[in-house]
């Protein structure tokens, strides 16, 4: 009895890494990060309901440089995931599948999420 070798799927080394692949991977990562980030909101809400001292403690933690960095990254995660969802919505409508359009949507996803994050923080954090 001879053993036949089974056909193998193409290995990752065969594919070239593209921006659409990166945005797909990041979309999944931001989805998980958004679940974890909701813990920050829950902690803040519990502290607000608990006492003024608890709220002051959480606000001082979130107001520290590390807290601000985490909240900035969380804001970007939320907005990036939202923009990725819009990109997938466009694809679900059977649009944007041409090679140049796919890459443009992926780059637009990244650029828009960065710009929107900076805009949100400029309006609601840095100016206020």
Protein model, in words:
This protein is mainly α. The protein is 78% helix and 0% strand. The chain is built from four helices and no strands. The chain has helices at 19-50, 52-63, 65-92, 99-126. The protein is elongated.
Instruction: Examine the secondary-structure arrangement and name the CATH architecture.
Output: Up-down Bundle
Assign the CATH class: Mainly Alpha
Q: Could you tell me how far the N terminus lies from the C terminus, measured between alpha carbons in angstroms? A: 77 Å
Shape: elongated
The figure for the number of domains is: 1
Poorly predicted runs: none
| Helical amount | over 70%
Q: Can you identify the CATH superfamily? A: Fumarate reductase/succinate dehydrogenase, transmembrane subunit
Order of helical and strand elements: HHHH
Radius of gyration: 21 Å
| Main beta sheet | none
Q: Average pLDDT value?
A: 90
Strand portion: under 5%
Structural class comes to mainly alpha
Count of alpha and pi helical runs: 4
Q: What is the third-level CATH name, the topology?
A: 3 helical TM bundles of succinate and fumarate reductases
Number-wise, the strands total 0
């Amino acid at each position: 009895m001879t053993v036949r070798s089974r056909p193998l799927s193409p290995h990752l080394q065969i594919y070239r890494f593209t921006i659409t692949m990166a945005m797909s991977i990041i979309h999944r990562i931001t989805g998980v990060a958004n679940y974890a980030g909701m813990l920050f909101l829950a902690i803040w809400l519990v502290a607000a309901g608990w006492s003024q001292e608890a709220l002051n403690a959480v606000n001082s933690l979130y107001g520290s440089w590390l807290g601000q960095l985490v909240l900035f990254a969380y804001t970007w995660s939320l907005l990036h995931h939202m923009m990725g969802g819009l990109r997938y919505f466009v694809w679900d409508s059977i649009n944007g599948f041409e090679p140049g359009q796919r890459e443009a949507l992926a780059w637009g996803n990244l650029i828009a999420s960065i710009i929107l994050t900076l805009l949100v923080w400029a309006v609601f954090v840095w100016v206020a």
